[in-house]
Specification:
4 domains; Immunoglobulin-like; 15 helices; alpha+beta; 6-stranded mixed sheet
């Protein structure tokens, strides 16, 4: 019976009368995959033209064995969203389950069925642990990735084509990119600069077992255990050949020889299990039998120390994000009051494609997670707060007050001031630029429409109005109808700018070895076939802050952002309204004579009046002074109607009330 129902679920089944043809249901499971013995929240949200809130919502669930485990249970309703917390029985099969939502408003009913995945539980919830899948207990030998591929060929092909394996991919959300880019293709940043030149130092985390070898990867290059067993540790094999070593005199006047990883004739590095870092007696068969779905610890194995150290790069995650306090991250905290979510609960990974892209990242391989995937579109009991959520303020602005809550994060790096780090270069020690690290940092804020500009090797670059060369910046404008204010970390550094206007990708290993950044630049120019001169310039990058959500009790009060004057000065409150364009308006808007006689209302009253029944867009008032009409007035009016006569005030009011934007008639 289940299969018949599911085959029909490619479209919605409708009953009742008064049906609106463009309504639908969005459905999600959180976490995905659900774990045997654990709770999963199944959410159904009505989309399109529903008549008010839902009147009823029922759920039916089928297991992977095609048996109906629940039928017609009532769901919890919040507006157009219905949710049900279901605990997967410990004796049920893993695999593809189905669930059906049956939603009704006051006039009609709609139902839809989708699948969700159920996997074997990993002890320790989101924070780590070993797997318990009985099928893996039959493994008697481990022959590398081939052992996994024997049963998981489809998954291996999916992983092979993923961003994590390729280090590059499609960039539809990077407006200055013309094709596939990534850390492995043109990637350069304000932290460790050019990963490809690091002689393997940046490959330690890479799931590709042979490093970023020059040839395309194959499925046998996938190190599955990097993501599917938190106990597993590996190391690159050092090369005993003295020809693959480098002796240098460093900035301290010391002579030092660096040994690099063993590279074969194909350019592949060799990785082996690092038993010294694993519990005594661990075998590869043990690890293969104990594989599990990725945990927070699995992802943080690499992402916590991006940029060269714990908490260094992102600012909103570090090693202790595996078990943060509720105040540090309410979503990932396993403590009382925390949701204990895995990373995959939000960053869904169908086909090993991970959703989510920050401002400074290039590739997009899956849809980005949204707060509304789990929370309703009107998550607050207060209408004013819901107006913020539905408008131009991202949830993160109010619910992530600071970043670097679990450790100091790097805010700037100066390559011209070398600092010795004994842990660099696989424990051989190395020089990095002088780092400024700060904990509990208040974010900067910018407009973000979901796209950005990110510099790639070979592009020319120009300084911005500050005289700084921005290597990653959000696209977005105030009141454009698609951008939201988001919190960011602004990371500053210095980089070599070639006389051609291109950033030179340093051969960064030379900086690590010598502490002489000029050597790294000169070697980088040789590698790129560049000649001529260069100068050091100030650069920065904007990084989206989106992890580290705090409990709702920590959200700011109204007067932490507003002084109720309508012109809250920047620096006096939490959000810089002037910098974000809120205090930009024509003189007639400020004195309320653009559309009518001068009137007196409070700052809040003005907004309620004009965004409520009047329904004016923000840009109708928050705009610069017009510079003129788009064409002569007599010709302009004739575009829509015959010649008419209005007073200046009523003319603007009439046209704004009909939804015309200022730019329809005016140049700016």
């Amino acid at each position: 019976m289940k299969k018949i129902i599911f085959s029909a679920a490619a479209f919605a089944l409708l009953t009742g009368t008064g049906y609106a043809a463009d309504r639908g249901i969005d459905m999600s499971a959180n976490p995905e995959p659900a774990l045997v013995g654990s709770s999963v929240r199944l959410v159904c949200t009505g989309t399109g033209e529903w008549r008010g809130s839902l009147r009823s919502a029922q759920i039916t669930i089928w297991s992977a064995a095609d048996s109906q485990v629940m039928s017609g249970q009532n769901m919890q309703i919040d507006g157009l969203t219905a949710a049900y917390d279901f605990t997967v029985p410990v004796d049920e099969m893993t695999g593809q389950w189905d669930y059906q939502c049956n939603l009704a408003d006051r006039s009609s009913r709609l139902r839809k069925t989708v699948q969700f995945n159920v996997a074997a539980a990993a002890t320790g919830g989101g924070s780590g642990g070993e797997g318990g899948n009985p099928a893996h207990q039959s493994i008697t030998s481990y022959n590398g990735p081939a052992t996994c591929i024997a049963c998981h060929e489809i998954e291996a092909q999916d992983m092979l084509n993923s961003l994590h394996m390729q280090w590059s991919g499609p960039t539809p959300d990077v407006t200055n990119s013309t094709g596939d880019d990534g850390k492995g293709v043109g990637g350069i940043n304000t932290f460790c600069t050019y990963a490809i030149s690091s002689k393997g130092a940046c490959y330690t985390c890479h799931v590709r077992a042979d490093g970023n070898a020059p040839h395309p990867p194959t499925v046998n290059d996938i190190d599955c255990l990097m993501c599917h067993n938190d106990t597993y540790q590996r190391a690159f094999v050092p090369d005993p050949d003295p020809n693959n070593a480098e002796t240098v005199v460093n900035a301290n006047g010391e002579t030092k020889t660096y040994v690099f990883g063993l590279v074969d004739a194909d350019g592949d590095y060799t990785t082996v299990p690092d038993y010294a870092k694993m519990p005594a007696g661990t075998t590869m068969v043990d690890l293969a039998r104990g594989v599990h779905m990725p945990t927070r610890q699995s992802c943080l194995r690499c992402h916590a120390k991006a940029g060269g150290g714990d908490w260094t790069k992102r600012g909103d995650m570090g090693a202790n994000s595996a078990a943060p306090t509720v105040a540090q991250d309410v979503h990932m905290s396993p403590d009382a009051g925390g949701a204990d979510l895995t990373c995959a609960a939000c960053h869904a990974s169908p086909g090993h494609k991970i959703g989510g892209r920050g401002i400074d990242l290039r590739q997009t391989e899956a849809p980005a997670p949204k707060c509304a995937d789990c929370h309703s579109a009107a998550p607050h009991s207060n209408a004013t707060l819901n107006r913020h959520a539905a408008g131009q303020v991202s949830c993160q602005v109010c619910h992530i007050r600071t970043f670097g809550k679990g450790g100091a994060t790097e805010m700037s790096r100066d390559w011209l001031n070398p600092v010795w780090n004994p842990a660099f270069c696989s424990g051989q020690g190395g020089f990095v630029g002088e780092e400024v690290k700060v904990a509990n940092v208040k974010p900067d804020y910018t407009w973000f429409d979901g796209t950005s500009e990110v510099y790639s090797v070979g592009q020319t670059i120009q300084p911005d109005a500050r005289g700084i060369y921005s290597m990653a910046s959000a696209n977005g404008e105030a009141f454009d109808g698609k951008s939201k204010i988001v919190p960011i970390k602004r990371h500053s550094s210095v980089m070599p700018l070639h006389e051609s206007g291109k950033i030179i990708p340093p051969a960064i290993m030379w900086m690590f070895m010598t502490g002489d950044f000029d050597q790294a630049v000169q070697k980088g120019m040789e590698d790129q076939g560049m000649t001529g001169s260069y100068q050091m310039v100030d650069v920065d990058a904007e990084l989206l802050i989106t992890h580290g959500v705090e409990p709702s009790s920590m959200a700011p009060s109204c007067n932490e952002c507003h002084d109720y004057s309508g012109e809250t000065p920047d620096g006096s409150r939490m959000v810089p309204f002037g910098e974000l364009g809120y205090h930009t308006w024509p003189a007639k808007v400020k004195n309320c004579t653009l559309c009518h006689e001068q009137k007196s209302l409070s700052w809040q009253g003005i907004h309620q009046e004009h965004t409520g029944s009047d329904g004016l867009s923000c840009v109708s008032c928050h705009t610069t002074e017009p510079t003129g009409l788009v064409k002569p007035k007599s010709d302009l009016c004739n575009d829509c109607h015959g010649s008419k006569s209005w007073s200046s005030n009523s003319l603007h009011l009439k046209h704004l009330s009909r939804g015309y934007e200022c730019a329809k008639c005016h140049n700016f």
